[in-house]
Amino acid sequence: QITMAMDQVSNGATTQTSSVEHGALLLCNVIEGIQHVANSSSSIANASTYTHEKAEDGGKLVGRTVNQMHLIAESVSQSDAVIQALNDKSKQIGDILEVIQNIADQTNLLALNAAIEAARAGEHGRGFAIVADEVRKLAEQSSASSSEIGKLIGEIQKDMSKTVNAMSNVNEEVQSGLVIANETKTNFGEILTSTNEIATQIESMVETANGMSKGANEVSISVGEIAMIAQNNATSTQNIATSAEEQLASMEEISSAAGTLSQMAEELQVLIERFKV
Question: Where is the Methyl-accepting transducer domain (predicted)?
Fold first, then answer.
């Protein structure tokens, strides 16, 4: 029974050693997995940092674009104001030309009347007729020039009107561009916020994975020590079992010798009884 018990203890120690070694192997696989997660997290963290930097660069570019768009919008607004002022001035010039045209017409009419009166005066009105004729010519020239200037002003006003409409369209496009640029700037800001949050989470994951890896390594060392102790226990148990078997064999020999001595004592007692008779 002692030998059987020692064999059971020895087998149990061997089984325990195998289980511990198997657990150590599984733990090594777990450590490799954790290290892989840590390495992957580090790679993701690097990619996130790169993305964050690019988002920052993009945000700065968009910011500069927004500022430039504001400058363009301001320039367009100023140009529109100048063109509108020129358009108003051209209208004023047109009004002045109309007055000049009326004056020229009146002057021409007065020159005609003066020529008629000079003709009635005969020889005495000849000099006055010459002056009236020159005035009439000047009035006609003024009227013709005013008419030409009026045509030019009309063409300028048409061009001004087209320019005003074009500048209005440009201003609308610039304002639309500003809205889009501001939305893009806002989106980049949200991207930066998201990448910051992701970077923080990834850093936490890396720290956690590294901590788990460190803890798993410590556990692996402890399991290795336990496996060594279990192996030593198994060896010691086997040695004890061997010693117990040897002692059991010795005890059996002693028991056999004791039986022989007992038998010899009984035989000796019989002989002694014979000598007494």
Answer: 1-227
